[in-house]
Fold:
Amino acid sequence: MAIKKTAADEVAAAPESKSFNFNSLNTLAVVSLATALTGFGAVAGIVTGHFALAQLKQKAKSGRGLAIAGLAIGYATIGLWIIGGIAMAVLRVRGYVGNGPMMGGFMGPDDNRGGQPGGMGWNN
Structure:
């Protein structure tokens, strides 16, 4: 006759899994990743990431990957800010940004676009 196993027997026979010790995690590494992900805290993510890497060289803790990820995201965000700023400056110089009807307000009486007299269809 076969022996029936109950759920309690299966749980008791299961091997113990090794859980992650969050007490050994470097706090600045977590802060670096969290602030870099916000976008607004990219500079703080870079600063705390460098401090976390310096601390991790002195003490054997985990979190090196989090610190590196915070640095990478922070530097990438600042790089995108710089590229976006240069692109906006080029577009403004070429006249594509800043002088449309939404940016400049109402058109004046001398600005006749599309056969409409005055701005926004109003007769002046």
